[in-house]
Amino acid sequence: MKIVVTGGAGFVGSSLIFRLKEKYPAYEFIAFDNLKRRGSELNLIDFQKLGVPFVHGDIRNAEDLAALGNFDVLIEASAEPSVTAGLDSDPTYVINNNLYGSINCFNACLKYNAKLIFLSTSRVYPIETIEKAAFTENGTRFSFSDNQTAAGISAAGISEQLSLEGARSFYGTTKLSSELFIQEYAAFYGLQAAITRFGVIAGPDKWAKPTRAL
Ligand SMILES: NC(=O)c1ccc[n+]([C@@H]2O[C@H](COP(=O)([O-])OP(=O)(O)OC[C@H]3O[C@@H](n4cnc5c(N)ncnc54)[C@H](O)[C@@H]3O)[C@@H](O)[C@H]2O)c1
User: Exposure winner among 70, 76, 168, 214, fewest CB in 10 A?
Assistant: First the structure.
């Protein structure tokens, strides 16, 4: 089993590689990253210790992905992950990186008949709808109430019933667009894919600042 993690040197990508390598020592994990996120280069030392190959590449460049050769699974964990990216200026970088770059990853999966796990986000939900949702403040967290005006929000969280109408940020829109493209790739090209919509993930080694477009 050969698993490529794009954005593999980032917060989520590297955490996944470290945990999965522990659980499946016989699997081969490859960390692919352009090291745009400052601090991600610090993970290269641990990759070396663990025998995890690192490939310096950019998902916007299909040739970088082609150089990986055959693989079985691609976990797409690379992105400009900031919800504020492009909000006050040209959004070209976030669109190219998160949407066109992701599509290069989908094409690479098709080439090798590999499966895809796509890290999406709760930012696909419209900002205004979420801001209007009723919630209660508990000791350690905010929880949605059961009594809501919008269908699809309850104490159990947000379901696929929630309307996606409304602005959600360029970041959220690139992720939602990628989700839609994945469905097309699944329907017309037979891509086997799983989409996960995370909320805010926090933990050690999170750098948590918008990266600057080069
Ligand atoms: N952290 C969260 O709270 C959160 C929540 C929901 C979804 N996500 C998603 O999870 C994924 C990982 O997020 P993260 O928090 O680890 O972010 P991160 O910035 O720590 O990691 C992203 C990594 O991708 C790399 N990268 C960026 N553009 C690239 C490109 N064009 N080619 C190759 N590598 C590139 C960066 O150098 C970085 O190492 C992202 O897709 C993000 O949208 C994160």
Answer: 214
